[in-house]
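Re: that backbone. Tokens:
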């Protein structure tokens, strides 16, 4: 696919504007950041496929509360509850009689502050038996694809807007040139009419008509200049430039970019599939479908393999001894039993979102088909109109020349000249507008087809009729 379709117009100024807009446009830069965010989210989802391994180390200085759980520990464990009884062997007797660990049943006041040193590693890995993690990653991949297509769709829109504004600027400049040319003709007609009036050949009515025609043409010039300045500012905004920044670059008048004589259109029914908005809608449908798989997997147990290994000691010099080692290994299973209907409601939500995405995809494809058909029709019809207006311009200019010759020869009054001038002005303006409309329709066709027509040499070059 031809990503640089604007080169078909063979206008170096337009090419420069398009390339600069692709780099500087603020909306495109924002979309690029969103794509980066989506890829980062994909990386987060992908991390769940692998085991989690964390290192830890800690030092704790602790002393139990004298009024806390240790204050009743001796009575709970059958130790006698006093230092005296412990010293007289009551605690030892309790231990000897099978009372358990009564030997530690001392009052909390007798427990001194202690240090606890430890370090080790923790590991955990969820066995993705039901595909929850895989479906989450699938959804994240589709979201990245959707973001990439959204960026490309915006790029095509910005490129088309730059081309349309540039074509509009050249149309306005051409209209201004036509107005200035007709202004010179009207000034010549007024001077001639005043001379003839001074000689008594014509009356003051014809002089007034000539002045009115001149004033009408003069009134068009400021309006066209204002429109040109506004379009230049629109282009400046698209290129992230301040107002009037492109004034010097675009002030010189250039013709409306001519359309190429032949346009490779291929098969529109196949080319609509290349549109980024269609691919974006398809990726969003893919992500919504994957989210259903995640919601279904939540109904099943989660099995996790976890373990920890490390060293623990009350004295720092013992932290490296093999006897200070500790470990814990084993699987764990989590089974949803009752969650108040949350899982079922989540599944219904995901299914509804998938149906919504499917409808959006269908609507996007249908709209694209209509846009392509409308763009093809508009471009073909404007071609025929442009050809007819070209013939009309030639005929109107011949009529004006004939009317002026008859007026100078005194065969007719000024009214035919005035009518011929108005006709030439209107027809030339229509022809200039048609040329810009034809170029703008071609831009719309490029945009409707996703930015270009040919990919890998496929497609047939034909002139749209």
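Recovered sequence:
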């Amino acid at each position: 696919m031809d990503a640089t379709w604007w080169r078909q117009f063979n206008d170096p100024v337009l090419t420069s504007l398009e390339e600069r807009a692709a780099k500087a446009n603020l909306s495109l830069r924002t979309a690029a950041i969103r794509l980066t965010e989506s890829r980062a989210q994909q990386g987060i989802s992908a991390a769940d496929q692998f085991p989690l391994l964390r290192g830890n180390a800690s030092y704790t200085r602790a002393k139990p509360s004298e009024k806390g759980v240790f204050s009743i520990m001796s009575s709970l464990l059958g130790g006698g509850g006093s230092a005296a009884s412990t010293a007289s062997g009551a605690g030892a007797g309790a231990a000897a009689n099978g009372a358990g660990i009564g030997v530690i049943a001392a009052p909390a006041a007798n427990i001194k502050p202690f240090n606890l040193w430890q370090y080790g590693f923790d590991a955990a890995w969820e066995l993705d038996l039901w595909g929850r993690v895989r479906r989450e990653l699938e959804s994240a991949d589709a979201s990245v694809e959707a973001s990439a297509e959204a960026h490309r769709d915006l790029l095509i829109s910005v490129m088309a807007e730059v081309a349309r504004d540039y074509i509009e600027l050249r149309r306005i400049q051409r209209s201004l040139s036509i107005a200035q040319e007709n202004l010179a003709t009207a000034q010549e007609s007024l001077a001639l009419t005043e001379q003839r009036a001074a000689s008594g050949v014509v009356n003051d009515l014809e002089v007034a008509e000539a002045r009115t025609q001149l004033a009408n043409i003069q009134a068009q010039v400021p309006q066209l200049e204002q429109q040109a300045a506004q379009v230049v500012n629109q282009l400046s905004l698209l290129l992230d430039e301040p107002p009037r920044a492109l004034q010097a670059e675009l002030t010189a008048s250039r013709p409306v970019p001519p359309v190429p004589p032949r346009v490779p259109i291929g098969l529109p029914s196949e080319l609509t599939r290349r549109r980024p908005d269609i691919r974006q809608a398809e990726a969003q449908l893919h992500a919504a479908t994957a989210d259903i798989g995640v919601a279904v997997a939540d109904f099943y147990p989660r099995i996790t393999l976890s373990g920890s290994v490390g060293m623990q000691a009350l004295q720092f010099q013992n932290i490296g001894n093999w006897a200070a080692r500790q470990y814990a290994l084993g699987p764990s299973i989590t089974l949803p039993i009752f969650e108040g209907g949350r899982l079922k409601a989540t599944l219904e939500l995901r299914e509804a979102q998938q149906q919504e995405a499917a409808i959006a995809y269908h609507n996007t494809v249908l709209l694209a088909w209509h846009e392509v058909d409308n763009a093809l029709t508009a471009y073909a019809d404007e071609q025929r109109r442009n050809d007819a207006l070209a013939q009309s311009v030639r005929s109107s200019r011949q009529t004006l020349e004939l009317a002026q010759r008859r007026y100078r020869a005194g065969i007719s009054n000024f009214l035919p000249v005035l009518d011929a001038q108005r006709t030439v002005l209107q027809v030339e303006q229509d022809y200039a507008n048609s040329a810009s409309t034809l170029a703008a329709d071609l831009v719309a066709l490029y945009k409707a087809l996703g930015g270009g027509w040919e990919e890998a040499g496929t497609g047939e070059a034909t002139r749209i009729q």
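The mean pLDDT is 84. The chain is about 60% helix and 10% strand.
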